[in-house]
Amino acid sequence: MQREKDIKFMKEALRLAEKGRGTTSPNPMVGAVVVKGNRIVGRGYHKRAGSPHAEVIALEDAGTKAKGATLYVTLEPCIHYGRTPPCVPRIVSSGIKRVVIAMIDPNPVVKGRGVEMLKKAGIEVIIGIGEEKARELNEFYIKYITRKIPFVILKWAMSLDGKIATFTGDSRWISGEESRKFVHSLRKDVDAVLVGIGTVKKDDPLLTVRLVPSEKQPLRVIIDPQLEISPQSRLLKEEGGKVVIFTLSGVDKEKVSFLQDKGAEVIEMEGERIRIKKLLEVLGKMEVTSLLVEGGEKVFTSFLEEGCVDKVYAIVSPLLLGGKDSPTPFGGKGFEKIKDGLRLKKLEWLRKGEDMIISGYIEVKCLQE
Fold this sequence. Notes:
By secondary structure, the protein is of the alpha/beta class. The protein has two domains: 1-142, Cytidine Deaminase, domain 2, CATH 3.40.140; 149-362, Dihydrofolate Reductase, subunit A (3-Layer(aba) Sandwich). The protein has twelve helices and 14 strands. Strands 10-9-8-7-11-6-12-14-13 form a nine-stranded mixed β-sheet. Strands 2-1-3-4-5 form a five-stranded mixed β-sheet, sandwiched between helices. The chain is elongated. The chain starts with a helix and ends in an 8-residue tail after the last strand. The model has no long low-confidence stretch (mean pLDDT 91).
C-alpha cells in the first residue's frame, strides 16, 4: 500500500521535473513534492542553473505543513555549495520526517552523501522509486557529470531506400513539416548542435530553434578543418546561438581574426585531423552536456567510427531516391559481418505526418586516445 502511494507521488515529482527540460543545463532536471496526510501540500521543480532547487521550492510552498511530512524528490538532495546553497540542511530544518528519492546523484561531490546526512538527522530515506524514468530524464546530466563529455545524439532524415540526398546533393526536404518541428524540439532540448563544413557549404543552415517556442538557442558547432566557411554564411550574419568552429592549427590567421570579429569562437586542434573525442572534451569544458549532430555523412561516420554516439534518431520518409552515388548516413569501410553491426537498444517508433521516426541507443564508449 505504501509503495503504491510512493509510486503515485513520485510520478508527480517526475512530471514536475520534466518542466525544466532544455533550461537547467548543466544542472539536472529535478522535481519535488511534499506530501502530508495523502495530500500534496508543496510542489517545486528546478527551472534553470542558479535558481532555487526543486526541494527548496517545494518546502517553501508547503510552509509549516512540511513538518512531519514526506518529501518526494527525483534526485538525491545536494550537500554542497554551488550556484545555490545545499538542500539537505534545508530539508532537515523543515521537519520533514521521510524522504523518497528516485535516484542517487552520480555527481562525485554528492553520490550518497546526501542520503547519509539525511539518515544521520534521523530522517527515513527510501531510494529507487521511479529510478528508471529519473535516469532517462537526466541522461544528458548523467553522461556529462560522470564522463565530462556531452551526451551525443545523431539525427538524420533519409528516404525509404536509405538516401540522405539525391546524387546531385539536393536534400530539401526529405522529411515533412511535422518531422522538422520535431527536430527543432530536439534542438531546443540540447546545449549544442553540430554539422560539418560540407553541410554548411551545401545547405547554408541557421541551426537555430524556430519552429517551436524556446527560451534559448543552442550553441552552433562547426567542424571545418581548413577553415573554409564563407564570410557570407548565414551562421555569421543572422542571429542565433554562439558559433564555435573547430579547425586545424596553422590555418589563415587573418580569417581567424575575421571570424572572431563576427562573434565566432575558433578553436584550433593539433594533428592531421579533428579527433571527435578531443572535440567532445573541449565542449565538456565549456559545460556542454548534450550535442545534437545533424550532418553530414563524413561527420556521422567519424562519430560512429570513434564510438562517440549515445543515441540516434532516424527520420524515414516514404520516398524512393535511388542512385548509386546518392549519399547514405554513414560511409567509411563499414562492417564485414552482419553480426558485427551496431544494433540499437531500447527502440522507439514515432509517427510524424507521413514520416516514421526511429530512435534508439548505441552501447559503445568513446574510444580513448
